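Obj: model holo form, ligand = magnesium ion.
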Amino acid sequence: MLNECETLMLDMDGTVLDLAYDNYVWKELVPEHYAEAKGLSIDVARNRLYAKYHAIQGDIQWYCLDHWSERLGLDVLELHRGVNHRIDYLPGARDFLHALREHHVRVMLVTNSHPDTLALKDEVTGLAEYFDAIYTSHQFGYAKERQEFWHALQEEEGFRRESTLFVDDNQTVLKSADTYGLSRLVEINHPDTSEPARETSAYTSVTGVADLLSS
Ligand SMILES: [Mg+2]
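Output (holo structure tokens):
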């Protein structure tokens, strides 16, 4: 699969890095701190937060730390930092990135991550060294779920759709890439090691990026 491509675009969270960290922060840590700050029970806090999350899911603001810090009255970046020992690669992902050096392919990180969490994750894992280019949707002002993102990325990179392999764990994002005209799409079906793998996938799927080398 890789040998036929000149460009490989990889998502970060849930594709290269374990989504268990992000899920822990947003589903456990933020609700705990929000409950404490507002004097709510954890269940009420979690329900309120999930409603807020849900309302803007897939929107650039959903991925924006500043938005959440302001909206919740919490220093969300500081919460991330406090548990940075939980940041880790998905199984086999680091070896995979290392092995890519033997392939003649342009390797791009294409993420919805806020620049601050991207920097924090690079600090902990050193992942940036494996990429020829790094793009976060925040620099364009549109999440990967939006067509505007792909047009802006195209303007920057001039990639060829037919020879680009795009890998992501988010089906809405894959659908957006599909609509844009990327035809080589792979879904990661085990993005979070603290949860079981997904049983159904909308696209060609692999457990983790390491499987791309053998497929
Ligand atoms: Mg992801």
